[in-house]
Amino acid sequence: MSARSKIKVRHLRIRKRISGTPERPRLAIHFSGKNVYAQVIDDTIGKTLVAVQTTEKAFRAETKIVHANQAVAEKVGALVAERSKSHNITTVVFDRGGFQYHGKVKALADAARAGGLQF
To answer: Considering the entire predicted model, what is its pTM?
Structure first.
């Protein structure tokens, strides 16, 4: 079983138990080789409320880093917390997307908590 398929299996196992509601939307994250993606999703209506990704022009202009590392994950976590607060979202359910809670995932989560999100 490849590493990517193991991540997919873990993510399916997590998603059986985690769901976003209007009171507590789901903070879903994904890491590719170069980019970091974070979305705040209300699963009851199937709508993304807030999204941050490193492919945005504003984010790319601010940072010249092209790798998905811990420093970039921290910036994405802080930015998703800032945008969530502007949409009056303070509490979320954290969906680590099948990735282990270590390194980049932990850095993003800690930065989002420091930015004011509660999970």
So the answer is: 0.89
